[in-house]
Amino acid sequence: MYNRKGTCRQEVITFKRFTRAKNAVLRSLRKEIRIGCLSVATLMTVHNNALATHSDSLQIANMHGNGDNNLSEIVISGSWIPVSLEESANKVEILTRQDIEQAKVETINDLLKLCSSVDVRQRGSMGVQTDIGIGGGTFDQVSILLNGISINNPHTGHLTADFPVSMNDIERIEIYDGASARYFGSQALNGAINIITRQPSSKSLTMQAKAGSYGTAGMGISGTLGNPTYKNLLSSDYLRTDGATSNSDFQRLKAFYQGSYSDPFVDTEWQLGYSYQRYGANTFYSANYPNQWERNNRITASFKGQTRRGKIRLAPRLSWVRSLDHFQLIRHTHTAENFHRNDVLTAGLSAHTQWALGRTAWGGEVRHEGIMSTNLGKPLDVSQQVHVEGHDNIFYSRRDTRTNISFFAEHALNLGPISLLGGIMGNRNSALNDHFYIYPGIDLRWRIHPDFKLYAGWNKSMRLPTFTDLYYKSPTQEGNIGLKPEKMSTFKLNGEYHHGWMRANVQGIYRKGSNMIDWVMFNANDIYHSTQFRLDNYELTAQAKADLEQLMGHGQPLRALQASYTYIYQKRHDDIEVYKSNYALEYLRHKLNLSLHHRIWRQWDATWYWIWQDRMGGYTTTDTQGNHKLKSYHPYSLLNLKVRWQQPKYEVYLSAENLTNHTYYDFGSIPQPGFTFLIGGNWHF
């Protein structure tokens, strides 16, 4: 190209997207093209803080864009060894930032409902008291991580999903279906969920406001300040509502800070989170007490790092999580009132290296869990009791602690189209005995064809009972101090097809569990007891996604169509008759998700979600004479709509849930809200 002076001037062309479309520039050359900078970009994208399990938000590429072949889709998977998604021998489901923006949900819990293998059971609206399970397992059998840092609650998994981050903070969510102990810790009996927050290297400020049904109102603010060396994210979010049903009001506050530093020698990252919520717990734990009430506070703090030079890369990690819980069986009274405070301290170190026979990682972790309570733990002498903060005449009268030590080793081989990843975890817990128990596993990926990959794996894992499983006692529940750790063997087989506009996969999982923990009633007039049994679990999942813009062109309104279906069958090996299970046997037998994303007009777009679920088990009701009756859960479907209007600096959205105003029950006899709506807006500066 010539300028006005007649001299030749070279234009620099930047490619932001790579695709297999027939009219693509590079493909039109009809030659094999080697992109020299691609390997560097890929390695930076998939860089993994080993001990941070697995995810480093410092080096994650921005996951915007519509094409399935974007470089931004190269993500890391669950392994101590840094591997890309293309190299990974373990199948992982990803919710990208684009998925989050289209969904326009208010909570992480609502977002996870869109995942085929995830079971989300909400007691209250908008994420209040939510149980999250994977593949038919219970809420206690999933490891929940925030930027690779475990935030599981040893008191009870009911409180684990109290996340300190808002939806605007999240870059993506990784879901791992299947036993994952050797790289996510001993609590990952059935799987793991890793939430990765955003950390842009620029200055920005975002404000948001929302209001809707039943006096719902909220506001939030977040800001980023950074450059390629230093990055900072600070956000806060407040939400309140009167509740769609009796005694279902709540207030919720979240605050989160994340910082990082990177140079040619080291990557470091630190985070601090705080969450607070108080809510009416209408029949949350028993249908006999509709006026229950609860308040939760949680603080999370962590630091992690990784060296970037040398033959051996080291990755230390340190974290602390404190949770406070105040429960009243009858609101504004001291009837069966409980106070709990638990602390989890974790320290670990890992290393990985590459040598002639592949890549190897090794390391260890120490996790100390302790609880002080008015109900849970071993009795304390009067001189040992500790005052409950904010309550003059109440003391923590019980206490228990346990220390978990684990060591691991992993090795990865890449044999052309075949990738192998094998490893073991050795685990010892002070609550059991002085022995180390070994949990091995192996995963395989075979690229049979450029468009088709086959995954297979076998892994073992374990989970310790929570302090609630062991000690809790109330007018409606009784724990069991004699519970043993749950143990699980998982066998997985997955086939994935990806070509052009179509991506699809089918997965089968067989879980063989022993000492599975559940809370059950043995007759209609019984209370719930924590007990154990052997359980076989069979899971079949099918997913498909169509990029309609790539298939039909960019001029038409349709953009994306997704469908997923999960079928689960469980068999309990126990001759003891159970009247009602509260958790393990109340799994989703069927779950079907459909979603359609389309443009309405100019900057207006919409996403429709249809969810159909069929749950096993049932819930108890009480008639006017005080007699208990067991009712089975009925299948139900929900139709939700999200409408969004986008501009470069701001957006406005409408979220309408349960458009058909369907009455349904998802946990016990707690009625779920009918039609609700929320109108909100975001302003970016």
Structure in words:
By secondary structure, the chain is mainly beta. The protein has one domain (202-684): Maltoporin, Chain A (Beta Barrel), CATH 2.40.170. The strands form five sheets. The chain has a 22-stranded antiparallel β-barrel. Strands 1-6-7-4-5 form a five-stranded mixed β-sheet.
State the gist of this model.
With 685 residues, the protein is mainly β. The protein contains 7 helices and 36 strands.
* Unreliably modeled segments: 1-23, 26-75
CATH homologous superfamily - what is it?
A: TonB-dependent receptor, beta-barrel domain
Number of strands: 36
CATH structural class? Mainly Beta
Shape: globular
Instruction: Find the CATH topology.
Output: Maltoporin, Chain A
Overall average pLDDT: 86
Distance between the termini: 38 Å
Count of discrete structural domains: 1
What is the count of helical runs? 7
Topology:
Layout: H1 25-28, H2 38-46, E1 93-95, H3 97-103, H4 108-112, E2 118-122, E3 130-134, E4 142-146, E5 149-150, E6 170-177, H5 181-184, E7 191-197, E8 204-212, E9 216-226, E10 230-241, E11 250-262, E12 266-281, E13 292-307, E14 312-328, E15 338-355, E16 358-373, E17 378-379, E18 386-387, E19 395-396, E20 398-415, E21 418-429, E22 437-449, E23 452-463, H6 467-471, E24 477-478, E25 486-499, E26 502-521, E27 528-547, H7 548-552, E28 558-573, E29 580-581, E30 588-601, E31 604-615, E32 618-622, E33 628-632, E34 636-646, E35 650-657, E36 676-684
Parallel strand pairs: 4-7, 24-27
Antiparallel strand pairs: 1-6, 2-3, 4-5, 6-7, 8-9, 8-36, 9-10, 10-11, 11-12, 12-13, 13-14, 14-15, 15-16, 16-20, 17-20, 18-19, 20-21, 21-22, 22-23, 23-25, 25-26, 26-27, 26-29, 27-28, 28-30, 30-31, 31-34, 32-33, 34-35, 35-36
